[in-house]
Design brief:
15 strands, binds pyridoxal-5'-phosphate, 18 helices, globular, alpha/beta, single chain
Length: 469
């Protein structure tokens, strides 16, 4: 066994290589067995051994284009040399990390650099995850307004801890975990009248919304976010923009709210700020709100978390912002996003099964729907009867197996494939995306054909699973 001898340094890379083949067995025995079953069913057992920038490499050395980027954490790509150097530098410098009865220099620097991008906000609260940032924002909203109500949108996703789960707009995530936090009310996304009705009681502390919803890549109507902000101002409710997925250049602006010219009271960020390596979350807010929480010396630690301002996380955040700025990744996201939207819109015109294409920058949803052609429609219906949303696997699985493109379905019960690549992708990667999607979508229009043969297997599996449940 490698790297475990007394006095020897631990060789983690060799340990990884030695036990790589055991990973399914280890997870089946000690972790989440259901995840292993999912991966075996869809046939994703390629054993990734390396990640560089926007690419993954399997045990055969085959290169994959990663359009998932660890659920949007690798905005600057995997293992960016600048990030790696920054983290090594922290470890090699014997910094006085987490003294706790002192304040962190690196947290001060990161807060200063973040707020330069969001000049209408004044204060930063750090946590270690996206859900942690949501929890902090909930507590801050209630304490700052003296109200208890929170309004969120249908299909919203703000994390899976109890407070955040209480704001989750999908029944599948909530089922079995109740009761949740009281006074949290759902309104449909893009419905200003429903929002006004919910806020008009003047009991609502905050309205929380993702500018573009992650589950489904749902776009706001052009007047929605500005209208919602105006309603929040009218009824004394705080406006929280959850930019945990959309922030830091993902949509072609530093924050997605910039597309609609609005200035929220709180902005939540996490995911990409980590550089993909050291978890971090942050709430950016106004001094007037912050000062109502941390309002006396005996309340200096009234909310916080042990590891939140640790030096590795702060250094990861500083290095990530540096890369985003120096490599002009916000601009690259806007430019490559425009190119991809154009090419997918072309496919929408050419292909019966492609119903909608939406997104901004490098957050793109391609939605499939019931075809007009009779032969195709019969196959579509068989699949949908077995399990709603199953069709997307007919796209995602061949993309992965035949074209080495890793992508995801944008949530439960949806027909949308979502693209969230690293913001570093190149024109050659866009061509790879075009070639592979075009071939797979064309294939899905052939009945009978390989795609629908796979569909039959998936439908049978889904029916068997339903019978067992
Ligand atoms: N908010 C949004 C919009 C997200 O997409 C996510 C994660 O996917 C979260 C919050 C929760 O973040 P985390 O998984 O780091 O807790």
């Amino acid at each position: 066994m490698i790297g475990l001898g007394v006095g020897m340094s631990l060789d983690i890379a060799s340990l990884f290589a030695e036990r790589q083949a055991d990973r399914y067995a280890l997870h089946t025995q000690y972790l989440n067995e259901q995840m292993v079953r999912v991966l075996k069913t869809i046939g994703y057992d390629v054993g990734f051994v390396k990640g560089t920038n926007q690419y993954l490499f399997d045990r055969e050395g085959e290169r994959y284009l990663d359009l998932l980027s660890g659920w949007a954490v690798f905005a600057i790509g995997r293992n960016h040399p600048k990030l790696r150097d920054a983290l090594k530098n922290v470890l090699d410098s014997d910094l006085p990390n987490l003294v706790q009865l002192d304040v962190s220099v690196l947290a001060g620097i990161l807060a200063e650099r973040l707020l330069k991008h969001v000049p209408y906000l004044d204060k930063v609260f750090f946590d270690s995850t996206g859900a942690g940032a949501t929890e902090a924002a909930l507590k801050f909203s209630r304490a700052a307004t003296g109200r208890t109500g929170i309004v969120y949108c249908g299909h919203a996703f703000h994390g899976l801890t109890y407070g955040a789960l209480s704001l989750n707009g999908e029944a599948a995530f909530r089922k079995g975990f109740g009761p949740l936090l009281p006074d949290c009310n759902e309104v449909p996304f893009n419905d200003l009248a429903a929002l006004e009705q919910a806020l008009s009681s003047r009991q609502v502390a905050a309205f929380i919304v993702e500018p573009i919803q992650g589950k489904g890549v749902n776009m706001p109507d052009d007047d929605y976010l500005a209208g919602a902000l105006a309603l929040c101002r009218k009824y004394g409710t705080l406006f929280i923009a959850d930019e945990i997925q959309t922030g830091l250049g993902r949509t072609g602006k530093f924050l997605a709210v910039e597309h609609w010219g609005i200035e929220p009271d709180m902005v939540l960020i996490a995911k990409a700020l980590s550089g993909g390596h050291i978890p971090i979350g942050a709430v950016l807010t106004r001094k007037s709100i912050f000062d109502k929480i941390f309002n006396r010396m005996d309340r200096a630690v009234v909310h916080g978390s042990t590891f939140s301002k640790n030096d590795m996380a702060m250094a990861a955040g500083i290095a990530t912002l540096d890369v985003i700025e120096s490599e002009r990744l916000v601009q690259n996201s806007a430019q490559k996003g425009e190119r991809l939207l154009k090419l997918f819109n072309g496919m929408r015109e050419r292909y019966d099964l492609v119903k909608d294409v939406r997104g901004k920058g490098l957050m793109i949803g391609v939605e499939f729907g019931e075809p007009r052609s009779l032969a195709l429609r019969a196959s579509w219906n068989i699949l949908e009867t077995a399990q709603s949303g199953l069709f997307c696997q007919l796209i995602a699985i061949p993309l992965f197996k035949d074209h080495k493109v890793l992508t995801q379905v944008a949530g439960h019960d949806t027909h949308t494939i979502k693209l969230l690549p690293s913001l570093t992708i190149t024109d050659a990667d866009c061509e790879w995306i075009e070639r592979s999607f075009d071939a797979v979508i064309a294939d899905a229009h052939r009945v009978p054909g390989a795609a629908w043969k796979l569909g039959k297997t998936l439908a049978n599996n889904a029916l068997k699973a339903r019978a067992r449940a």
